[in-house]
């Protein structure tokens, strides 16, 4: 039998995908629409904004109006760009075909947001919640988990202290109890330019950038000596991801800039490796400055998504594992889970879809996965509530 989703899930997902909430662009259209929708369903809603007021988080609460306890269902509203990708349909129009929903963010992670928006109000109509059930929609997760920091600061100031959190990233509805952290860096190399025929009198920024990149490769290989079981890539990784330099083929380049990232295992101190990188940059800078004092290399951190490792002895973690019925696992990609955990909220990661579909052209989530997520939320609602009516749950 082909799986089906609640009609409100489809309505919400169609609308959410239609908002082109690419990271660093405003997400206010989506957030304000979701706020109005959930408020009409009885939610208590609060917004928290970024510094310029163009992006916001939504925190919507159902059930008892109390500051302590309860559960957060969390996800980000932003999506990655579609520029340069070959899509078979408009990425910002949900396309339902062959038991799949195509569209940017369908998998990562508007499918989860849509299910939450559709089903949680249904739960509260059927059950009397014993403790609050919150929805948290954040901004700019894809570029460094920026919005969740503002959200958690706002909750702390408001005295709202949930007990548990499910981050609904695409996991195939399996329970994730740990993931790597991610730090990203920008390395700027300033040399001394000259006509290429006078190369010995110049300082070639690209060549010194290459020396830095080779050193990163050496450190990356060394990280393989410290594996942790349970990950598809069981050691920390270091990779150069972008590079730009030079202005002409007959000019020794003055400037070169590249980006690199470090994905580190829980329990490891990322500063251990970054300190080595900075030390090597200082060593090369001294070499460069023997030719020209203005030369040098700077390493700047641009983002940091925290590593995450759940305490499997916590009651909520055991509850979440029992709820999904899946064997707990660990992943290499990063989520907002580490930030909720650092705020003292027991957290797991579990949501519909396959992470392999995220960020790709023709991104999709299967209808079966959305249906399974709906079922899990109904089970969650039953576990957190006392039945008050005999209204049937959604199929």
How would you characterize this protein structure?
The chain is of the alpha+beta class and 395 residues long. Helix content is 33%, strand content 25%. It has two domains: 7-178 and 307-387, Zn peptidases (Aminopeptidase, 3-Layer(aba) Sandwich); 181-305, 2-Layer Sandwich (Alpha-Beta Plaits). The chain has a six-stranded mixed beta sheet with strand order 1-2-7-3-8-18, with helices on both faces. It has a four-stranded antiparallel beta sheet with strand order 12-14-10-15, with helices on one face. A hairpin with a 2-residue loop joins strand 4 and strand 5 (100-102). Helix 1 crosses helix 3 (106-126), helix 3 runs parallel beside helix 9 (367-383) and helix 5 runs antiparallel to helix 6 (270-289). The chain starts with 6 loop residues before the first helix and ends in an 8-residue tail after the last strand. The relative contact order is 0.20.
Question: What's a quick, concise take on this entry?
Answer:
With 395 residues, the protein is α+β, with helices and mostly antiparallel strands. It is built from 9 helices and 20 strands. 33% of the residues lie in helices and 25% in strands.
Domain module tally: 2
Uncertain segments: 389-395
Helix-strand makeup class:
alpha+beta
Shape: elongated
Estimated helix fraction: 25-40%
């Amino acid at each position: 039998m082909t799986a089906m989703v609640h009609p409100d899930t489809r309505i919400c997902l169609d609308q959410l995908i239609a908002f082109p909430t690419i990271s660093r662009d405003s997400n206010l259209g989506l957030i304000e629409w979701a706020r109005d929708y959930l408020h009409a369903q009885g939610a208590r809603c609060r917004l928290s904004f970024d510094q310029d007021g163009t992006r916001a988080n939504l925190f919507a609460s159902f059930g008892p109006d109390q500051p302590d306890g309860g559960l957060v269902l969390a996800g980000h509203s932003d999506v990655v760009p579609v520029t340069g990708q070959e899509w078979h349909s408009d990425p910002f129009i949900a396309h339902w075909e062959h038991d799949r929903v195509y569209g940017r963010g369908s998998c990562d992670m508007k499918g989860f947001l849509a299910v939450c928006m559709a089903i949680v109000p249904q739960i509260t109509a059927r059950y009397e919640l014993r403790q609050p059930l919150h929805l948290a929609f954040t901004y700019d997760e894809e570029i460094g988990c920026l919005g969740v920091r503002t959200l958690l600061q706002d909750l702390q100031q408001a005295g709202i202290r949930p007990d548990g959190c499910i981050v609904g990233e695409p996991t195939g509805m399996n329970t994730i109890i740990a993931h790597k952290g991610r730090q990203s860096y920008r390395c700027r190399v300033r040399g001394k330019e000259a006509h290429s025929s006078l190369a010995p009198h110049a300082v070639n920024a690209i060549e010194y950038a290459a020396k830095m990149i080779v050193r990163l490769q050496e450190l990356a290989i060394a990280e393989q000596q410290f594996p942790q079981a349970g990950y598809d890539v069981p050691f920390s990784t270091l990779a150069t991801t972008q590079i730009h330099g030079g202005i002409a083929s007959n000019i020794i380049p003055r400037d070169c800039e590249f980006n690199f990232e470090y994905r580190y295992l829980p329990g490891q101190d990322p500063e251990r490796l970054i300190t080595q990188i900075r030390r090597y940059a200082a060593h090369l800078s001294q070499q460069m400055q023997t030719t020209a004092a203005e030369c040098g290399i700077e390493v700047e951190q641009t983002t940091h998504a925290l590593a995450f490792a759940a305490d499997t002895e916590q009651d909520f973690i055991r509850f979440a594992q029992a709820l999904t019925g899946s064997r707990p696992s660990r992943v290499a990609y990063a989520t907002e889970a580490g930030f909720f955990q650092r705020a003292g909220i027991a957290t797991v990661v579990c949501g519909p879809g396959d992470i392999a579909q995220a960020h790709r052209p023709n991104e999709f989530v299967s209808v079966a996965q959305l249906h399974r997520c709906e079922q899990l939320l109904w089970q969650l609602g039953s576990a957190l509530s006392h039945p008050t009516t005999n209204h049937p749950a959604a199929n």
